[in-house]
Amino acid sequence: MVSQVWRAFAALSLLTISLSSPLHAQSYPSKNITIVVPLGPGSGMDILVRLYAEKLSQALGKAVIVENKPGAATMLGAAQIANSQPDGHTLGVLTSSALSINQHLYKQMSYSPDNDFTPISLYVKSPLVLVVNPNVPAKTVPEFIALAKKSNPPITYASLGAGVFQHIAMELAKQRLQFDATHIPYKATGQSVTDLVAGHVATGFVEAGASIPVIKDGKLRALAVSSTSPLPLLPEVPPFSKVSGAADFEAVSWHILVVPAKTPKEIVDRLHAEMKKIMLDADMIKRSADIGLIPIESPPVAGINDYIKSERAKWGALVDKLGLKGSM
């Protein structure tokens, strides 16, 4: 009798284990979903998230709410995502700063970029545009590099401060091409663009959204984009990697939709599949391009992890070489 009871219990246990994963997937989502955006309303990231949140809501059958959590170089939003329940009802969008750069710059962080997240979708890259004031006598990247190498004193470049993406993008270019340039830090993008237009600073890698209007007006000259593929809104401007002699050069931020670590695999897989369909839609591709981003087809989850690791290694090595490791 005991053996029969034991066999029945064992069979029931196996059945429960075999059914738990599909049942979990079938019951998801059981409530509204929140996507945490670590930037303020109106940013390119925020605009795009709100566009696909509506489509994700339709696919999942529950409301998808966008919550802005700006501050601390995107680390406030990252910490909120990391500390959420790993049940697929809290998602978030993180960038190169949060996942591959900040850990090298900051002595203390309230989350672990390596251990606290599972990626869902890498869907756009956000390039910078290398611009110069029109009075700078360089119309191509080779001319710019030659000018920078012979300038005395060194030419000046604008960024939003040490360790910020525009800064390390130019420092990467300086390292790879062996030229010098003096860093001029600014508190806001608008201030840096104003001084670039006025000729108070010669050059800089500037966000696409901030630079394109003044490029179109002829107030700045675009020499290259920092991505390995052209920017849809500036198709005539070549990638820096193709015209500089540094064929592997890429200095882009990116948007990755993530969930807290330990979110069940079947939920991760479902969200990955839904996001892939959404972001490959022709309308979403166009909308992404229209706000100065480069839409891409997301790699599988394992491929996203590999990409993040490669970005950490690249930027970590540069931060260390610049003497900025643990400087904040």
Question: What are the defining features of this structure?
Answer:
alpha/beta; disordered N terminus; 328 residues; D-Maltodextrin-Binding Protein, domain 2; 10 strands; globular; two-stranded parallel sheet; 12 helices; 18% strand
Quick one: how many beta strands? 10
The major pleated sheet works out as: 8 strands, mixed
Number of helices: 12
| Number of domains as seen in the coordinates | 2
CATH topology of the largest domain: D-Maltodextrin-Binding Protein, domain 2
- Can you tell me the CATH architecture of the largest domain? 3-Layer(aba) Sandwich
Instruction: Classify the helix fraction into a percent range.
Output: 40-55%
What is the first-to-last residue Cα distance? 68 Å
Q: How confident is the prediction overall: mean pLDDT?
A: 92
Write the H/E string, N to C.
HEHEHEHEHEHEHEHEHEHHEH
Q: Strand share of the residues?
A: 15-25%
User: What would you give as the CATH superfamily of the largest domain?
Assistant: Bordetella uptake gene, domain 1
Roughly how many Å is the radius of gyration?
A: 23 Å
Structural class: alpha/beta
Uncertain segments: 1-21
- In one word, what is the shape? globular
Report the top-level CATH class of the largest domain. Alpha Beta
